[in-house]
Amino acid sequence: MVEKTKKLAMELGSTGLRRYGTLSLVYEEFLRQLSPTSIRGVQLYNEMSMNDPVVGSILYAIEMLIRQVSWTVSPFADEAQDQERAQFVESCMNDMSQSWNDTISEILSMLVYGWSWHEIVYKRRLGDTYDPMTRSRHKDGLIGWRKLPIRGQDTLYNWEFDESGGIQAMWQISPPVYQSVRIPIEKSLLFRTKVRKGNPEGLSILRNAFRPWYFKKRLEEIEGIGVERDLAGLPVAFVPPEIMNPQATGAERTIFEQIKKIVTNIRRDEQEGVVFPMMYDDNGRTMYDLKLLSTGGQRQFNTNDIIKRYDQRIAMVVLADILLMGQDKVGSYSLSINKTELFLVAITSWLDSITAVFNRYAIPRLFKLNGWPTDRLPCLNHGAVHMPDLEALSKYLQSLSNIGFPLLPDEGLENYLRSAAKLPPKTEEVE
User: What is the pTM of this model?
Assistant: First the structure.
């Protein structure tokens, strides 16, 4: 029986994650320039998030919505000890050298790169000391979180796996020392947007937006060049044919190269100006001349509409096209409500994944370090991503009341309604 159980516990297959050995990078991305662990991939995702106004507005909207979310820790049960330990976890969140909201902001870098690795740095809570390893608002001698600093995606050197493909550590090489450092998973938290094949790199929410972003960027560059050429005119230089002859003398070739440089470098700005030779042949005709040719009308394609189409596709990838609604004065109110709800559902799912990592790994480890059992753990919770529509909520409650549905007294419902309206909690009645 023991042997049979042992065989059942053995792992026979594998996830199929493309890697080589236990110390390796991951090679799942078929576009090598987009590999989230390559310097080029990090640079491209960084360029998308920093340079593109649509991508930037989407990420900014997500972060601002998440920053206004409330965070609470609920106890395992109503017993006094469970309440105290839930309060302890909440105190650890607010006792770090970096604020909780700033920590969440750094965790959200997983949206751009697909993953975010954070090292857990602990401290002994000994009050207002000079040592950062013991400095705390509390003087209970317990072990708490000092900080949860990010380990930059561009500093990854290798992943370390065990024989069955489990993630064991991140190997990092970073400035200013540029030395290889092993950061074990037991001392870290790994946040990912998506888990497939056990890939530690997740999947960037911008991955499916790369193609429209790429074409949009190229089109904007071409559009900028076209506008400049249309405003400045196409420079055309007329020169004697002999200086273009392969048999031209060195002096003639030098003149030809200088004229080509003038033509290709003409720009319309406050520094504009061209010095050109005035030479005539024996018949009095100009030997050298420079003209600016302009186009006779509009281009065949409306680049503005094409760029808008790519913007729409970029926003659609993360269900954030609600941010573009109204720009063309189209779209119904009900459609905007539906799209808003989808966008908020996506944000809520990312918040759920963040809280799951804390509840599954961070809090149990904290309890173990303090010598507490892990069978009665408190739970980190996040609030609603947005304020509910109070008018719609009131109509809904009124409809329930009209059909005789019992609403009050109900302490849970009353607490929710007060929090939804940003009203103070109900005070305890004093007998």
Answer: 0.77
Tokens of 366: 């904290």
Domain ranges of the chain: 14-206+337-387, 209-231+299-314, 234-293, 395-419
User: What tens digit of pLDDT does each residue of 46-101 get?
Assistant: 999 999 988 988 899 889 889 889 999 999 999 999 999 999 999 999 999 999 99
| 3-state secondary structure labels for all residues of the chain | CHHHHHHHHCCCCCCCCCCCCCEECCCCCCCHHHCCCCHHHHHHHHHHHHHCHHHHHHHHHHHHHHHCCCEEEECCCCCHHHHHHHHHHHHHHCCCCCCHHHHHHHHCHHHHHCEEEEECEEEECCCCCCCCCCCCCCCCCCEEEEECCEECHHHEEEEEECCCCCEEEEEEECCCCCCEEEEEHHHEEEEECCCCCCCCCCCCCCHHHHHHHHHHHHHHHHHHHHHHHHHHCEEEEECCHHHHCCCCCHHHHHHHHHHHHHHHCCCCCCCCCCCCCCCECCCCCECCEEEEECCCCCCCCCHHHHHHHHHHHHHHHCCCHHHHCCCCCCCCHHHHHHHHHHHHHHHHHHHHHHHHHHHHHHHHHHHHHCCCCCCCCCEEEECCCCCCCHHHHHHHHHHHHHCCCCCCCCHHHHHHHHHHCCCCCCCCCCC
Whole-number Cα distances in Å, 121 to 149, 366, 426: 8, 11, 38
Q: How far is CA 54 from CA 51, 313, 372, in A?
A: 9, 10, 48
- Residue-wise pLDDT tens digits, 74-87: 999 999 999 999 99
* Low-confidence residues in the chain, pLDDT < 50: 330-335, 430-431
The gap from C-alpha 384 to its chain's centroid, in whole angstroms, comes to 20
Burial code of 158-185, b = ≥16 C-beta within 10 A, e = fewer? bbbbeeebebebbbbeeeeeeeeeebeb
Distance CA 347, CA 345 (A): 5
Q: Let me know how long the chain is.
A: 431
